[in-house]
C-alpha cells in the first residue's frame, strides 16, 4: 500500500511538473511571437526601442509579453496615425500602455477592461470610454468632449480620427487628474 501511495504521489508530481513545463513553454512561445515577431514586423527599425520599452514596463507591473501584445495590437493604427513613423508610433504605444496600467492602479478598474477600451479606440469605438473612469461616458460625443478638454489643458488640437491624438488626449486628461506614473 505504501508503494502504491508513493507511486501515485510520484505520478501526481510528474503531472504537475509536466503542466508547469508546458505552461512555461507556451508563455515562451507567446513571448517569442509578440516580443520578436510582432514588434519586428510592425515597428521595423524602431523594434529595438519597442523591446527597451517592453523591458522597462516591468517597473509598472507589466510583463514583456503583455506589453508586446498590446503594442502589436494597435501598432498598425498608430503607424497610420503617425504617417508611417514607427518611432513615434512605439512612443505613443508605450505612453498608452503605461497610461492603462496607471489608470487601472489608481482607479481600481480591471486592467482587461482598460485594455479593451483602448483596443476599441483603435477601431473608433468609444463605447468603453467610461471604463477609464475619467468622467466621460461611452460615446463618440463624450470622446470629442474629452479631446476638447485636453485641448484646453495642453493648447494642442486633437483629431478624433487620429489614434495618436486620442491616446495623447487621454494622457493629458490622466496627467491632469494625477493618474500618470502611479503604477511604477
Keywords:
single chain, 184 residues, mainly alpha, 8 helices, globular
What's the layout of helices and strands?
Blueprint: H1 2-43, H2 47-56, H3 64-73, H4 75-81, H5 86-107, H6 111-122, H7 140-154, H8 163-176
Helix pairs in contact: 1-2, 1-3, 2-3, 2-5, 4-5, 5-6, 5-8, 7-8
Structure description:
This protein is mainly alpha-helical. It has 8 helices and no strands. The protein has helices at 2-43, 47-56, 64-73, 75-81, 86-107, 111-122, 140-154, 163-176. It starts with a helix and ends in an 8-residue tail after the last helix.
Distance between the ends: 54 Å
How many helices? 8
> Main sheet, how many strands, which sense, barrel?
none
Task: Calculate the mean pLDDT score and round it.
Answer: 85
Q: In total, how many beta strands?
A: 0
Question: How would you summarize this macromolecular structure in one to three sentences?
Answer:
With 184 residues, this protein is mostly helical. It has helices spanning 2-43, 47-56, 64-73, 75-81, 86-107, 111-122, 140-154, 163-176. The chain is globular, with a radius of gyration of 20 Å.
Amino acid at each position: 500500500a505504501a508503494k502504491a501511495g508513493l507511486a501515485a504521489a510520484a505520478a501526481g508530481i510528474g503531472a504537475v511538473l509536466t503542466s508547469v513545463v508546458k505552461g512555461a513553454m507556451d508563455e515562451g512561445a507567446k513571448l517569442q511571437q509578440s516580443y520578436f515577431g510582432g514588434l519586428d514586423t510592425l515597428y521595423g527599425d524602431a523594434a529595438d526601442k519597442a523591446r527597451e520599452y517592453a523591458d522597462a514596463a516591468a517597473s509598472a507591473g507589466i510583463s514583456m509579453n503583455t506589453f508586446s501584445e498590446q503594442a502589436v495590437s494597435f501598432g498598425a493604427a498608430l503607424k497610420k496615425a503617425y504617417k508611417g513613423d514607427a518611432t513615434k508610433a512605439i512612443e505613443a504605444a508605450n505612453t498608452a500602455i503605461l497610461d492603462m496600467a496607471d489608470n487601472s492602479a489608481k482607479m481600481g478598474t480591471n486592467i482587461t477592461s482598460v485594455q479593451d477600451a483602448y483596443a476599441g479606440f483603435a477601431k473608433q469605438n468609444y463605447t468603453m470610454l467610461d471604463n477609464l473612469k475619467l468622467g466621460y461616458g461611452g460615446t463618440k460625443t463624450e470622446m470629442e468632449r474629452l479631446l476638447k478638454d485636453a485641448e484646453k489643458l495642453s493648447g494642442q488640437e486633437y483629431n478624433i480620427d487620429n489614434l495618436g491624438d486620442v491616446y495623447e488626449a487621454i494622457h493629458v486628461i490622466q496627467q491632469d487628474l494625477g493618474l500618470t506614473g502611479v503604477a511604477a
